[in-house]
Amino acid sequence: MKLMRVSNPTTVLELIRKEFMALPAEDSTIEDAGGRYLAKTIQSPEDVPGFNRSTVDGYAVIARESFGSSESIPAMFELAGEVLMGKIAPPISTGQCFMVHTGGMLPDGADAVIMLEDTEVSGHLVNCFRQVAPGENVIHRGEDLKNGATALEAGQLLRAPEIGLLASIGVTEVSIHRQPQIGFFSSGDELISYKLGQLGPGQIRDSNAPALLRLATQFGARFKYGGILPDDFEVFMEKSKAMLEEVDFLVFSGGSSVGSRDFTARTMQELGNPGLLIEGIAIQPGKPTLLAKCNHKPVLGLPGHPVSALNIFSIFGRAIIDQLAGRVQERLSPSLKTNLARNVASRTGRTDYVRIKLKRDEISGELSAVPVFGRSGMLRTLAEADGLLVVPPEKEGLSTGEIVEVFLWE
Ligand code: AMP
Ligand code: MG
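# magnesium ion complex -> structure
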């Protein structure tokens, strides 16, 4: 029997970053660019803000004329007018103040704004009960972003704040990396479509296809389902060759072990150069995982067991999507630290992913992490979990009461 050359998860992640490049760039309107990554750095074409603005409702003044004023000795200003929003403010003269609203322009010569709360109007005069320093309650022209300064770096994920920032500087079109297109095959003679009603003897439904479709979509890729491959090498080769031409990233589920009816490894080896890179990862669940590079494209062979398939795709499939999509920043998964409610056994030399259900104590209100045990074929155990706990390879297990970090699923 052929033995697997098992690699560490970190080695595999490093290899993914080294071997696969971001997809080519395309132009997009900012409305359609959400969730994608910038292919080019963007410089601001103007100062933001474009003029000195007030950050409060109040009176624009020459700051030094307010010096020494207090509750008992207010400074007095002549109310010279009101700055209308979206209009140029008239210049200010000695002894004057102008009413200004939040976001309104400061008159030429004014350098601070006294908050409405610190003033009192009497006729054409405004009494100010507090002194202001130059620049107080003002955002200066270019303070947020100078003309020509970097607004967003290449590789930046475009979320709502980035899209808002682009709009605020008048950038309506951006160059982004193409969205990764995944091609997916399930495999195994025992599988039937999940859309068919009755199972025959020995049959199971292809649950991995729709589950992985959901994950791929969530991770920002498009997903093309190629159907169920029978355990037949000729069919594997023919179908996957055609699919690889059409997609950026090919994924197989099942047939990734070293059994006599497992054809994924051989297919991945013969599909294109250089072929297989990884045969097995020191991880539980999901050890019989394959990774190849065929004609510059990543090909991932997931174990068929649903829990393993989803675990492996969440870690390595996602890393590949990130790489193709042009992500630069490290991905930080949302997590929380809490007490472990039960002992967890683990073998050294292997990274264990333990399914965790969070439980809130009815009296103290505190959360604790309850491990959900079950074999990797049992999808229900995964559906019950709120997240995962990672037991690193050097650890022999974790004890009840230990503080652990639980990575939460979205
Ligand atoms: P394999 O990796 O092909 O050896 O499959 C391992 C286990 O996962 C077997 O019990 C398969 O029946 C099951 N399995 C394989 N593919 C799927 C799938 N697409 N959906 C659900 N279970 C599967
Ligand atoms: Mg199989």
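# post-check
The helical segments are 9-19, 160-168, 208-218, 233-246, 264-270, 306-325, 379-384.
The chain has a mean pLDDT of 95.
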